[in-house]
Amino acid sequence: MATTTTTVTITGAGGQIGYALLFRIAAGDMLGPDRRIRLKLLEIPQGVRAAEGAALELQDCAFSLLESVEVTDSPATAFDGCQIALLVGARPRGPGMERADLLAANAGIFGPQGAALNAGADDDVRIVVVGNPANTNALIAAASAPDIPSDRFTALTRLDHNRAVGQLAAELGVRADEVEGVAIWGNHSASQFPDVSHATVHGVPVVDALAERLGGPEQATTWLDDEFIPRVAKRGAEIIEVRGSSSVASAANAAIEHVRDDQGGTGEAWTSAAVVSRGEYGVPEGLVCSFPVRSDGSGYRVVEGLRLDDRARARFDASVAELEAERTAVRDLGVL
Fold this sequence. Notes:
- The protein is α/β, with parallel strands linked by helices and 336 residues long.
- It is 45% helix and 19% strand.
């Protein structure tokens, strides 16, 4: 029997990812069967009707865990008492739009949302940014919420993590849950580095398993460099080309798993999430950067002490440099 109620706020709730999230959250997939859910759905005025339609469907599902649903276009109302926030709504990159323009447009979204979280959220709020560019949008939101500890803000790279696991499982002919120790380093962009150097399958290093399957270490390295890493990094574009629209169900699933593991813990295993750097692995402090992380149920912490060889370090450093450039661009806008 559910014993507690958690207020969950979803921005962009009338969009496709929001729609894919709502029913699984209400069913208990994110927080489990012992937590009732109070949903607050934030939309821009043009999206309110879509969110209201989703709220009607939620009512028609008669979920036993769903206590209430509120639809609003007011950030102050949406984040009042919020305990978990999924910031999904973001400005997509349009034709001819430079990255600086994209950052400026999203600063106008995530800055006010951060301020509203700061003013009204629960003292123990946890925030995950899904809307892209996720890492720097999280940085903007955190900068606008000075009273919320910055480690409460995370950005989603679990989708990249899952994509990497899925590619390895398919290549090795195993189940996804048999692959452990994958890590995503850096930015949620094409510069990210999906790292398998610490990954195992059935207790065997993935690099050794690939070498055996593909005909030797050289073939394994070629596959990782020429197929695996680019395909994981560009999987979103591949899905748009094949499906005709961007990732929806897989993004929603990753967001649910991100919050589930943050809240419920990962045990000795690790996953990947973008968190505020404290200088781990030489990443400049304050950047929202993806690392391998664990949680004991009180939030994600970076797994430290992993070795990165020169090739891995170069890829990671390139992604971090992109994050630094984004932070500089945002500072030039006067946001930070």
